[in-house]
Structures are given as structure tokens and as C-alpha cells.
């Protein structure tokens, strides 16, 4: 069961009042997508969404970059300082440029990049993902945009993305199993191409991936990886330790939170906003 105590231990700098709003939806989503069946699953999921959201503080992508930041993060789209200067500290312009003509977005002038910028705890991005999520919920695009900015929607979208990309299977593997599959070409290119650029991957190839719960930062740990974003080791290890304590039931769920939802065929239904 996900508790407020666990979330505050994971994210000590986040206000308790913010974290309290996520306890119930996190339990419901984790139960629905069978994450409680294996401590690695829920550990990987919570670590990833905490990383993506800055400790559950951000459910809308922050694109307020300086020129230097643009050239570092989006070098492909801002190859020169002169161009970057034209866009710096202009989030809407930045989003429209970097997300144009991909993920089924229109061109830069369409405004799709900013409209469909990252939202939710796992930062759902692009018209394509928004449309698929909206269809799963039987919501309009406009309602979906608003829903993603609520705690319920932020968590539901993260669970949907996690399940849609079959990420439970990767978190349930050992590091060596994951590396073996990568060597066999059985890991999606969207995961493997990013991982091979990770310095830790050289150790992973040898089956040697150290996990130090006292060390914070982005590393490859136990195959938990989504969309090019590496996990925070400390958080994953802390959560996994929590679920391995003998007094914690890994399959336990907050029934009071789960009972209010009617399970549909393919997604937790829209939790009102």
C-alpha cells in the first residue's frame, strides 16, 4: 500500500498537503495495473513518476529555458546561440518548436507543441498520446487536458502510459535478465538506444549494476526505464525496501479509495475533476 509516510520519505522537500492528494489515486492505479504483485513494479513506477514530476510538484512541463539551457537540452532545434536567444524564456515558442511535426503534432505555427506539452506525473506529451488517452477515457481532448492537471488525472495517465508500454515486465526482471534481452535485440529501440548512451550501461553489460541507496542521481537500475529518463536510485531502493518489510502487505490496497471506481475494459475510468 502506498502511504503518506512513504511519499514523504521519498520526497522530503514536497509539502505534505500536496502528497496527501496523491495517496488514494496512487493506490487505485497501482492495484488496477497489478503493480502490487511485485515490489519491483511499484518501486519502479513510483520512482519514475517522482523523478518526472520533481517530487510530485509539477504536472505541467516547464519549458522556461535560458539560451544556454536550450542549446544543452535541445541542441538539435537550437544549434546556434543567435537562434536560442530568440526563444529563451518563451515557453510557448519553445514548445511549439521542439515538439513540431512529431507525435502527430502540427508544424510550429499550429501551436500543438505547447497545447500538447508534457502533463501528468509521467509527462504525457504529443497529440498522439493525448488522443489515445482521451479515447481510453472517452473524454474530449479539452477535458483530457484539464484532467491531466489534476491529481487523479496525473496518476491515471501515468498508469495508462506504464501499462500501454508494458513496463511492468521490465521492472520485474533482474538487471542481468534485462541486459540479456537488450543483447538479443528484444528491448524496444526507444529504451535501448537511450540506455546504451548511459555510462552505467558498461557495468550493466557485465551484470554489475551497483545500487547505493545513499547516492542520489540518474542511473540504470534493475531495468526500470521509460522514455529516455533514468531513475532516481535512492527513491527506487527506498520504496523497494518499504515493500520488503515483513509488516507491509505488498498486495494491500486502500479499498475505500478503490471502491468508488468502476473498472472499464482498458483503463481506470475518469476520476472526476
How would you describe the overall organization of this protein?
By secondary structure, the protein is an all-alpha fold. Helix content is 51%, strand content 1%. The protein contains 16 helices and 2 strands. It has a two-stranded antiparallel sheet with strand order 1-2. The two termini are 24 Å apart.
Quick overview of this protein structure:
The protein has 273 residues and is an all-alpha fold. It has helices spanning 4-10, 16-32, 39-52, 67-73, 81-87, 91-98, 112-115, 127-137, 141-148, 151-164, 168-171, 175-183, 189-195, 200-205, 233-244, 255-258, and strands at 218-219, 231-232. The two termini are 24 Å apart.
The oligomeric state is single chain
Beta-strand percent range: under 5%
| Sheet with most strands: strand arrangement | 1-2
The N- to C-terminal Cα distance equals 24 Å
Please give the number of β-strands: 2
The low-confidence parts are 197-238, 244-267, 269-273
Order of helices and strands: HHHHHHHHHHHHHHEEHH
Q: What is the CA-based Rg, rounded?
A: 19 Å
What's the SSE blueprint?
Elements: H1 4-10, H2 16-32, H3 39-52, H4 67-73, H5 81-87, H6 91-98, H7 112-115, H8 127-137, H9 141-148, H10 151-164, H11 168-171, H12 175-183, H13 189-195, H14 200-205, E1 218-219, E2 231-232, H15 233-244, H16 255-258
Antiparallel strand pairs: 1-2
Helix pairs in contact: 2-10, 3-15, 4-5, 8-9, 9-10
Please give a handful of descriptors for the protein shown:
about 270 residues; mainly alpha; two-stranded antiparallel ribbon
Amino acid at each position: 500500500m502506498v502511504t503518506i509516510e512513504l511519499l514523504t520519505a521519498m520526497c522530503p522537500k514536497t509539502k505534505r498537503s500536496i502528497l496527501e492528494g496523491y495517496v488514494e489515486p496512487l493506490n487505485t492505479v497501482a492495484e488496477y495495473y497489478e503493480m502490487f504483485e511485485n515490489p519491483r513494479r511499484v518501486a519502479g513506477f513510483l520512482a519514475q513518476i517522482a523523478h518526472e514530476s520533481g517530487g510530485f510538484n509539477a504536472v505541467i512541463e516547464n519549458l522556461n529555458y535560458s539560451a544556454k539551457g536550450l542549446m544543452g537540452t535541445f541542441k538539435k532545434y537550437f544549434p546556434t546561440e543567435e537562434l536560442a536567444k530568440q526563444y529563451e524564456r518563451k515557453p510557448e515558442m519553445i514548445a511549439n518548436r521542439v515538439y513540431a511535426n512529431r507525435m502527430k503534432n502540427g508544424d510550429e505555427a499550429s501551436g500543438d507543441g505547447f497545447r500538447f506539452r508534457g502533463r501528468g506525473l509521467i509527462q504525457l506529451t504529443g497529440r498522439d498520446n493525448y488522443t489515445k488517452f482521451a479515447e481510453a477515457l472517452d473524454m474530449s481532448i479539452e477535458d483530457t487536458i484539464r484532467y491531466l492537471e489534476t491529481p487523479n488525472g496525473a496518476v491515471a495517465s501515468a498508469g495508462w502510459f506504464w501499462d500501454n508500454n508494458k513496463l511492468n515486465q521490465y521492472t520485474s526482471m533482474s538487471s542481468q535478465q534485462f541486459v540479456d534481452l537488450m543483447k538479443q535485440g528484444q528491448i524496444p529501440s526507444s529504451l535501448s538506444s537511450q540506455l546504451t548512451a548511459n555510462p552505467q550501461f558498461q557495468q550493466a553489460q557485465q551484470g554489475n549494476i551497483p545500487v547505493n541507496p545513499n547516492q542520489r542521481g540518474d542511473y540504470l537500475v534493475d531495468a526500470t526505464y521509460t522514455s529516455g529518463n533514468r531513475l532516481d536510485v535512492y527513491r527506487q531502493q527506498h520504496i523497494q525496501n518499504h515493500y520488503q518489510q515483513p509488516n507491509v502487505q505488498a498486495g494491500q490496497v486502500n479499498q475505500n479509495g478503490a471502491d468508488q471506481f468502476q473498472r472499464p475494459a482498458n483503463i481506470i475510468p475518469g476520476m472526476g475533476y
